[in-house]
Amino acid sequence: MGTFIQLVVDGLATGSVYGAIALAIVLVNQSTGMINFAQGGMAVLSAYFAYTLLGLGLPLILAILGSVVVSFVLGALIERFLMRRFEGGDPDTAVVVTIGLLTLITGVAGWIWSYNNLQFPSLFPSASFSVLGAAVSWRSLGTFLVIAAIMVGLQLLFQKTKVGLALRAVADNPKSSAYSGLPVGRLLMIGWGLAAALGAVAGALVAPKLSLTPGMLDGPLTYALAAVILGGLTSPIGVVVAAWLIGVLENLAAVYVPFIGNDLKIAVPFVLLFVVLLVRPQGLFGRKTVVRV
């Protein structure tokens, strides 16, 4: 039982990493209707901003808050001067642009800060406490709670606030939103800015666990995209639950399914994804899209 609980706890902690990136992807999609493949790179760049502010002598919490502000502005500027040229056009073109943006950000980060592993301090202590025979670190628990709080906050934002409803309206139909008097351009900038700010939080949570490098989130981004598809693009709660499910099942399969082990556990989320898409293409928590013709 102790081993099982340990695997579940570790899986939830790992899944929280995937969930943080997945939430930022959902935020961009809910506010602009696009999929941002550069989200992982933007989160890494935000972590480097925080690392630089730490080097200037700021306390950790202020450095992270500073990176959140800088990232919000950067995300808004990227939407205004780059992505807006492709919004409303061919979705495939916008996807290619975000992939190119990811490559550019990774290269710029490596050029400025080098490709060496850098140590980033954690917001939470590395000590552990015991729960039913399992060792739970305060860092894992803190990451889990922060992601859970952000998940609930985003759900409330999109469902209960005027700004969230306006962001969803703009993503669904920009022309009708403009005719209704909504400031479409400003809302698109806010959506990208909020996603970049969320990426800054994700980068600060992940960097102490993985060590800070330009490609730090390349692997987690793949799992995050799987969580987005599995949970549904329209549900912040869904993608986080899916990310936790991926982390836990991956750990359990590696230990309790002999032919999988550590070498093949990477295939577990994608097998799960294949099965779910056959049964429920919109994802576990996503909404069906009805198109009138």
From TrEMBL:
Entry keyword set = Amino-acid transport, Cell membrane, Membrane, Transmembrane, Transmembrane helix, Transport
Looking at the keywords, is Cytoplasm present?
no
**A biological process (GO) annotation for this entry?**
amino acid transport
Q: Which GO terms describe its molecular function?
A: transmembrane transporter activity
Protein biosynthesis is among the record's keywords: no
Record family assignment: Belongs to the binding-protein-dependent transport system permease family. LivHM subfamily.
Q: What is this protein called?
A: Branched-chain amino acid ABC transporter permease
Organism, by scientific name, is Microbacterium stercoris
